[in-house]
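Supplementary Data S3. Sequence and structure tokens for construct A.
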Amino acid sequence: MSLDALRGVAVLGILVINVRVFSMPETTLLNPTVYGDFSGVNYWAWLVGHVFAELKFITVFSALFGAGIVLFIESKNRKGQPALRLHYRRTAWLILIGLGHAYLLWYGDILVAYGVCGLALVFAHDWEPRTQAGLGLLFLLVTPTLEVFAGLTVGGEAIASQWAPAEATLRAEVATYRSGWIEQLDHRVPTAIDRQTTGFLGGTFWRVGGTVLLGMALYKWGVLTGERSTRLYRRLVAGGVVGVATVLAGVWYIEANEWSAGAALFWRQFNYVGSLLVAGGYVGLVTLYARRRPDGAVTRAFAAVGRTAFTNYLLQSVVATTVFYGHGLGLFGAVSRAEALGMVVAFWAIEILVSVAWLRRY
């Protein structure tokens, strides 16, 4: 039950960040000051999401994907079925669906990245967990090492065009996504290609791949399945508090440097590191709660969402693009951060109710 509840919390939580890219130009995820009101309640809506959600829930989700690889292969092996062949077939379908999701609906798809990592890293499924975790940590060091090196050598020029794009570029993106589905392809297709090629090799593979490997190890250690001591999960929660402080220190750093591109590559590392700790804190919190109230309404609600996580993830994209894109209500670029966050809360309620009702019937 705790594993399903954890997956449910993760899939709900990632919408807090995804809604920003659904509703505003892509660059706002990197630099929130370039578009939209960034004061008062909208600043606080951004801050809450940045500190408690950005990279945190996707980290939990990625770790659970790694755990799922091991769980799937172990299950098939126990039944005497060709586990690896079935894994490759299942993963190929995941990539195919992800490609459709990315090019037909939303460029921010994560399924293709998961599928490729699942194919590339399945060789490690039967390793000792310490080895899996060690390789995972090495993977996780790649991106921050490269970014800090770029910051020290090239400086802000390394990301200047992405950090502060021209006003005309932002207006064009807004106009594109307020247009029809065909017109949206002008931005969605090249953006998806970039994310799945240079973006994947330069960053996503190392972050997602490293977390997948850690997820394999954490599953084998019994951490993700709620089998460890209460003391361990409390330590994870305490680590999460340290992670929150780390992320807040990063916010102080970038604001002290007036959101300059030169400071951005260093700022990103505060959240990169802090998110791993906060994600661990969520694992601890959800596990402790699920252990205390295994049959409680909250635990069962999150578990229902977790058991239908794949459908809920895709449903989020369907609903969000219908609300924000031009083939639907066309609200792209017109909704504030606080309003978008309110929409997220409303959709959480719908997802939970639908997931619970669906599993009661089917």
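Construct B, processed identically:
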Amino acid sequence: ERGRNAKAFSKIGDCESSATWFLEDFDKGAESYSLGDYAELDKTIEYFAGSHGRGSLAARDGARVSTLFSAIWSDRAFCEAEETPLECEIRVHNPAFAIISLGSNDIDDPAKFETEMRELVQITIDQGVVPILATKADDLEGGGLNNQALAKLALEFDVPLWNFWAAVQDVPNGGLDWDGAHLSWSDNYFDQPGALQSGWAMRNLTALQVLDAMRAGVQSLPGQ
């Protein structure tokens, strides 16, 4: 009803959103991944074709929530004067959904993180975009405070929560690499032995599962 593209999503966030290996393989063709027991996700890969590998104007290494509110970080090749990265990405890509992954760089002040995330969620909703809040695998702030804030906001706004933290609890080292901050690596061949014993494989798989739920929700609407 708001004119958003129900077959498009945007990635909003830090290095785990800007990395080309976040979902990109699913726009490269079937030779770049294998779904194994999750073959039913093929229809979701096709449904959101074009968004998986697209470089977002609102995702960059080192991003904090405040980065998305500052026009200084906008790409002037695409964004209008004084347009923030968040506003620019929504205008240019016109998504119905936004996967929002933040918090790993907002570790000095969890209360501020919650306040700024509340504003970001509200802006996204006001723009007619469904925000999907993603918890993170790391606990750099201590006590899981940023993940708790994300869960709280998902309940408060009644929006989807992608609990990635929960998804990697049975993965070695909680899906993290040696530094306790970045995700451990493997390709997206889910039918290979041990493939889902890395943070990145689980991130891509569970992201697809979340998108699958969004697709099913859209297609269950009257007239779809």
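Strands lie at 5-13, 95-101, 130-134, 161-162. The chain is about 35% helix and 10% strand.
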